[in-house]
Each structure stands twice: as C-alpha cells, then as structure tokens.
Amino acid sequence: MDELEALHQEVRGCTKCPLARGRTLAVPGEGPRSARVMFVGEAPGFHEDRQGRPFVGAAGNFLTELLASIGLRREEVYITNIIKCRPPGNRDPYMDEIEACSPYLDRQVELINPKVIVTLGRYSLAHWLPNAKISQVHGKPIRVGSRVIFPMYHPAAALHQPALKRTVEEDFRKLGAFLAGALKAEEEEPPEEPRQLSLF
Ligand code: URA
Ligand code: SF4
C-alpha cells in the first residue's frame, strides 16, 4: 500500500474526535498523488458520508462543472476537506474538531506536495491564512511559502445565491487563467533552471 492510501485508511478508522461516532463513513479525500492542484472544502455532507467520497452531492456536481469549465477533470486533481467526518445536520465544524482533524490535511499536503491549493469556503482559507477575509481575497492567488493559495467561496453557498454563483464562476475563470500562465512559465523555463516566479 502506498503512503497516501495508508493515510486514507488511517482516516477511515480514526476516532480522534466525537464526529467518529455519528459518521457512516469517513471521507479521507481522493485524487492522484501526483496532483499539482488540491481543492480543500469544509466537511462531508449527507451523500459524502454515505459514499465515503468528497463532493459527490449537489455541491460536488457544481464543483465538477466548474472544473470542467476550465478544462480540468476531477480525476486529475486531489479533493479533500478540512474535516473528514460529517458534523451532525451539516453544522459548522467546531474549533476542537478542526484541531483534531487538520493534521491529516497537513500530511496530505506534505505527501502530494501540490503547487496550488484552492480553498473552498472560509474554514479551509483560515487553515492557511487565518486573518484573511474571503470577501477581500477570493479569486486571487496568494503565495504562502512554496505554494500558492487560491481562495474561493464555497460552491454549496454559491448554489443558493445567484450573485455568489456568478462570482464563483468568474473566480474559476481566473483560476484557469492563472494555471495556464503557470504552465506556460514552466514550458518556457525548463525545470533544471527554475525561475523564481515559475510555479511548477
Ligand atoms: N461540501 C464540502 O465542503 N465538502 C464535501 O465533501 C461536500 C460538500
Ligand atoms: Fe478523526 Fe477527523 Fe473524523 Fe474527527 S473528523 S474522527 S479527527 S477523521
């Protein structure tokens, strides 16, 4: 078993916080270990809890559409959440649950080593940029250490608010342009001679 699959298995058996008692299945995350872009949502909802997979309900369908709109397939990105088990009634996660669970996310980031982390919603944004306001930073790449954080509103919130939906669609266009620019920089500059601003 590779390290990422071993980590997924560890999450499936985790009892580090009280959310373990109410879950059907834990949702570790999915996607290739070689993914260069990682999407981090909030927590599993009803369908995710039943299937053990992230973003498979209505918000997931919207996310899949948004990915397709910039030429990305679900299978080529890594998708996970801050919290791996469903909070009862889809309530917001508590601080102590985030503290208990986020070491798994940190290990996923370490193993996959993505260049770009797209945060979906304010909880995952706060993991990397605790003082950032989503209304001010959404749709903009922000360098944090060796990676770029690209904050987005949560697709579930956008589904029920037409203005926010348009904002998320526009932010995805910006993400697409940003990723295309980063890839072009990589082509122009071979990896043997990395330029400081080159992303990949
Ligand atoms: N919302 C999330 O934040 N994550 C999921 O996996 C599904 C819905
Ligand atoms: Fe473990 Fe995270 Fe699930 Fe809590 S939410 S039981 S810490 S996997």
Automatic annotation (TrEMBL):
Gene3D superfamilies: Uracil-DNA glycosylase-like domain. It is an enzyme of class 3 (hydrolase). Its EC number is 3.2.2.27. Keywords: 4Fe-4S, DNA damage, DNA repair, Hydrolase, Iron, Iron-sulfur, Metal-binding. It catalyses: Hydrolyzes single-stranded DNA or mismatched double-stranded DNA and polynucleotides, releasing free uracil. It holds the Pfam family UDG. One of its GO terms (molecular function) is 4 iron, 4 sulfur cluster binding. Transmembrane segments: none annotated. It comes from the Bacteria. SUPFAM superfamilies: Uracil-DNA glycosylase-like. GO terms for biological process: DNA repair. Residues 28-173 form the Uracil-DNA glycosylase-like domain. Belongs to the uracil-DNA glycosylase (UDG) superfamily. Type 4 (UDGa) family. This is Type-4 uracil-DNA glycosylase. It comes from Thermoflexus hugenholtzii JAD2.
